[in-house]
Amino acid sequence: MVITGISNEKVKFFRSLKDASGRREAGCFLVEGANSVKDIPESAEVLSLYIKESKEEAFRAISDQFACEKIVLSDALFDRVSDTVTPIGIAAVVKKPKSADISEVSSSRVIVLDHVSDAGNVGAILRTAVAAGYKEAIFLGGADPYSPKAVRASMSAIFKLRPIFCENNAFLCSKFISLYDIIILDMQGEDIFRCLPRERYALVVGNEAHGVGEDIAAIGRKVSIPMQSMESLNAAVSAGIAMYVLGRK
Question: What are the distances in angstroms from CA 122 to CA 39, 141, 208?
Fold first, then answer.
């Protein structure tokens, strides 16, 4: 059966996952686009697939990978409810993995996002983090890494990092900060090329406009990326450079 009405319950559910409150309530998120859906790992729990009517046959090979409910929407309806400007025609509803606790962090290096507000930056940072070998990411507020925009920008990296969601106070009070070398990206910090991190370190990336909070800034050492003729770089670009520079050490 092809669904054509915006008031259909399955369509309402799909649309609810575009909002943070809907994702929290349902405990799942959207993955949209053929390549993104195709790259969903077997370990992820896919609850359903939404497919555009005219692309049903074209995406048969992808949809057959998943033993879940297949929901077909008319082309006009799919385009209307999609989060992308030019919808490809397939989206998956995936169950969120269980978030780890700050006390469970075990990697030798960790990326910390302190209220990074742009979902595209969040996704791009996670993508680079995975490429650079990071296994865990700590989120201290900011944009939801499970928002459609962040998921798209992460290019499947969202499935390859263990997420830890933590309040600032819990982060500051945890044993984590005594076990890790806290390295903070800040334009007033020392030259990152001179920074020699300890064996276990956490790279902290702050809010695009305001940087890291004062409470976080007080517990670590600040590093900066030397620049010529420019005052700043995009948060995701800065994080990417820092991850690889520190990795060389």
Answer: 19, 11, 11
Q: Is 2-95 CATH 2.30.40.10?
A: no
- Res 66 pLDDT > 90: yes
Domain 102-248 part of CATH 3.40.1280.10? yes
Angle 235-248/119-131 helices, nearest 10 degrees?
Answer: 20
Domain residue spans of the chain: 2-95, 102-248
Q: Which residues 6+ apart lie within 8 Å of 72 measured at CB?
A: 1, 2, 3, 50, 51, 52, 53, 56
- Percent of the chain exceeding pLDDT 70 equals 100
Structure tokens at 105: 């962090």
Task: Output the CA–CA distances (angstroms, integers) from residue 132 to 150, 179, 242, 245, 248, in the order listed.
Answer: 18, 21, 10, 10, 10
Predicted model pTM: 0.94
Q: What is the pLDDT of residues 93-118, one digit of tens each?
A: 999 998 899 999 999 999 999 999 99
What is the mean predicted confidence (pLDDT) over 135-142? 97
